């Protein structure tokens, strides 16, 4: 009940976010990256930081040789933000956590993360799969309101493909943070029940009022659509932190482009500053 009340209290801001999403173009994954901006500012700093911490590194980076160059570029960009280094410290320099980063052609413009828990629901390992075309393509605004705001036309030319790739990488670390902070048994239960829900939903003529589906939704705390959206929106908090630090450094006026600023404000008016919970 308290939960329903707080959901209702959030309704105006959800409407605001929904209104914002409607004006953010729903790009398919066919848009090319904006032109490249060859800044190597900060690369030396990042390389020095990496070599200083090399003996603590626990991450397995399984990168095919053909993708090594681009991976290095995206990783360096991500680590040039202090929030990127904090995340790296938390997962890639952590002797109690097994992080693997690899490439997947299948992911193309996207990325995903696979989780591994112990029997008590603690996250102990994860694999981030990066698409080989991570530096281009924009996901839907509905689930990715922040990443979508980087679409061409919204941004000045200095915001190029490697910024987009690093934003997507920061989104994946956002997933890691959220899942790290919750009981993995709940997350796994949701995954199982969501499949069950979809099987019944597809077989009952898409009737969401089916009492069995209503009971399953109650059990997992939402419908498959709302749970998936909630997970993606959580992960976007990681992208916000990275962009807030990085974008002002890329132009002389030290500003975040308006489209990105508007997306962040719409997000925060709905969810508050989630980065503090990550
Ligand atoms: Zn995601």
Mean pLDDT: 86
Structural class: alpha/beta
- The radius of gyration is 19 Å
What gross morphology would you assign? globular
Largest sheet: 4 strands, mixed
Helicity level: 40-55%
| Number of separate helices | 11
- List the secondary-structure elements in sequence, H or E: HHHEHHEEEHHHHHH
Strand order of the largest sheet: 1-2-4-3
Task: Tell me what the structure shows.
By secondary structure, this protein is an alpha/beta fold. The protein has one domain. It has eleven helices and four strands, in the order H-H-H-E-H-H-E-E-E-H-H-H-H-H-H. The chain has a four-stranded mixed sheet, with helices on one face. A hairpin with a 5-residue loop joins strand 3 and strand 4 (123-131). Helix 8 runs antiparallel to helix 9 (211-220). The longest helix is centred in the last third of the chain and has 23 residues, at 224-246. The protein is globular and about 60 Å long. Mean pLDDT is 86; it is low at 1-39. It binds zinc ion. Residues 171, 175, 232, 235 line the site of zinc ion (ZN).
Topology of helices and strands:
Blueprint: H1 2-9, H2 11-23, H3 43-52, E1 60-62, H4 68-79, H5 82-91, E2 98-104, E3 111-117, E4 123-131, H6 145-148, H7 161-180, H8 184-203, H9 211-220, H10 224-246, H11 258-271
Parallel strand pairs: 1-2, 2-4
Antiparallel strand pairs: 3-4
The site of zinc ion (ZN) has 4 residues, from helix 7 and helix 10.
Outline of the structure:
This protein has 278 residues and is α/β, with parallel strands linked by helices. Helix content is 52%, strand content 9%.
């Amino acid at each position: 009940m308290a939960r329903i009340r707080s959901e209702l209290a959030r309704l105006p801001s959800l409407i605001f976010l929904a209104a914002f999403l409607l004006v953010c173009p729903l790009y398919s994954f066919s848009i090319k990256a904006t032109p490249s901006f060859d800044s190597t500012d900060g690369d030396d700093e990042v390389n020095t930081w990496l070599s200083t911490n090399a003996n603590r590194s626990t991450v397995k980076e399984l990168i095919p040789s053909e993708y090594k160059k681009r991976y290095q570029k995206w990783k360096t960009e991500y680590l040039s933000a202090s929030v990127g280094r904090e995340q790296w410290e938390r997962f890639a320099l952590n002797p109690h956590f097994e992080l693997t980063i690899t490439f997947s052609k299948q992911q193309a413009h996207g990325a995903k993360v696979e989780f591994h828990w112990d029997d008590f629901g603690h996250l102990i390992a994860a694999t981030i799969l990066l698409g080989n075309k991570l530096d281009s393509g924009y996901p839907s605004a509905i689930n990715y309101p922040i990443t979508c705001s980087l679409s061409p036309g919204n941004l000045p030319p200095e915001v190029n493909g490697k910024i987009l790739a690093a934003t997507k990488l920061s989104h994946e670390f956002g997933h890691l943070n959220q899942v790290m902070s919750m009981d993995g048994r709940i997350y796994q239960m949701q995954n199982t029940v969501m499949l069950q829900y979809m099987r019944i939903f597809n077989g009952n003529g898409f009737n969401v009022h089916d009492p069995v589906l209503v009971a399953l939704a109650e059990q997992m705390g939402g419908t498959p659509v709302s749970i998936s959206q909630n997970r993606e929106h959580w992960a976007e908090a990681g992208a916000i932190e990275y962009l807030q630090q990085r974008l002002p450094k890329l132009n002389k006026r030290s500003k975040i482009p308006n489209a990105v600023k508007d997306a962040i404000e719409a997000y925060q008016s709905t969810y508050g500053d989630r980065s503090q919970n990550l």
